[in-house]
Amino acid sequence: MNEPYRLRYTNQIVGVFLLIVLIITTAVSVLLFSRLLVTRDHFYVTATEEEASGLRSGTEVLMLGQSVGLVDELRYFPDSDLVRVRLAIDSDFEEQITSDSEVTLNRKFGVGTPVLTIRRRKSNDRQGKPIPLEPGQSIGRFRGEVDAVDKMSSDIETASSAIDLAGNSIATTMTDSIDPAFRQGEAAFQSFEKTSESLRGEVTATLAEIRRTTASLEKEMQGLSQRVNHLIDSDIRSAVVRVQESAVAATDAARSVEKTAETIESKSEMTNEDVAKTLATLRETSLLIQKLTNESREVVRIVRSEAEELPGTTARVNDTISDTQELVGDINDHWLLRRYRNEAGPTKQLSPSSVRGGSVR
Fold first, then answer.
1. CB 62 within 8 A of CB 118
2. pTM (2 decimals)?
């Protein structure tokens, strides 16, 4: 821990670097060794100098999207401008190369490095059954790189020819079907115009006749409505007169009823006042009678008390008491006091013989 920082992890850094170098070296060695172990067979392709101008040794060869070999050598044919291209193809794919195979020069992504692609011809270009080629044989067909401008011009020419063909077809259709239809429509329109011109006068006369008929009908309707209004007005006037007469009679009857009611009301008010006065007089009379009854009872009590104190006057007192009791009974039996008193039992009559010596047996 006391050694300087720059020397602290030197051994670890050196060890990691050496490990990385060893891994890279091992990978490269394995790749080279695997290439040495893979056996490759040679096939040949003949192309012109212009077609082979983009090729070089080591150019990749593709088949069905995967790398199957590379360009091994490029050589001229003696006394010719043709170029012989030798292809080193992996032995695992040599059976895929047949007599109907062709080699095409392309570029990766259209603008990248050139590559050779081995593919089979289309079905309509094949001649007989395809036969696998032996190593050392030549692939029969080579197609160089197609110029983009030429390809675009060819595509434009193809499209323009298709457009011309469509235009000719449309023109033929217009001539054969649409033009006759337009002619028929024009003829029908002219016929309709002639018919409308011939019918215009008749239609105008018919409309004028309809207007005259309508005006006469309106006049007849106005006269009829006036006559109906006159009849209705006369009937309504007579009915209104009868209604007014009935209303006057009803008003007179109502007034007489009102007067009768007022008379009855005044008389009933007078009768009620008389009855009220009579009831007040009866109440005063009943009060006076009750007061007289109470005084009579008080006299009876006094007389009884005196009779008790004076035994010699018993007979006279008894007579007085009897008379007083009869008077009280007559007063109580009066019809004006029956509704203002509680009915009580009659007072028991005492016989004179029961009063002796100021006591009652």
1. yes
2. 0.34
CA distance to 119, 216, 320, 329, 330, per residue, from 323 (Å):
169, 120, 5, 10, 11
Q: How confident is the model at residue 360 (pLDDT cuts 50, 70, 90)?
A: very low
Same domain, yes or no: 28 and 87 = no
> Strands, E, within 66-147: which ranges?
66-76, 82-90, 101-107, 114-120, 141-143
Nearest of 141, 133, 91 to residue 117 by alpha carbon = 141
Mean pLDDT, residues 161-165: 80
Number of neighbours of residue 172 by Cβ within 10 angstroms: 10
Q: Which residues pair with 118 in a beta bridge?
A: 103
**Domain assignment present for 255:** no
**Distance between CA 332 and CA 325 in Å, rounded?**
10
Residues 33 and 110 occupy one common structural domain: no
**How confident is the model over 2-27, as pLDDT tens digits?**
555 556 678 888 889 999 999 999 99
